[in-house]
Predict the structure.
Amino acid sequence: MAGLDSGEFSAHGLRSGYLTEAANRGIPLPEAMEQSLHRSVQQASSYYNSATRREGQASRLLA
C-alpha cells in the first residue's frame, strides 16, 4: 500500500530493526518486547547488546 517493494522487507528485518532502534533510543528491553512480541529475552537482548557495542569506547577506535 505504501508503494514499496515487499521483497525488500521481512518480518524478521522489521522486528530486529525495531529492537535495534529501541535500544539506540534507550527504551527498556521489556517495554520494547511488548511491541515486538519477542518471547525470548535472550534473542531480543542480542539487539540491545549490539547497540551497546556500537556506542562503547572500543567502537570509537573504528571511527
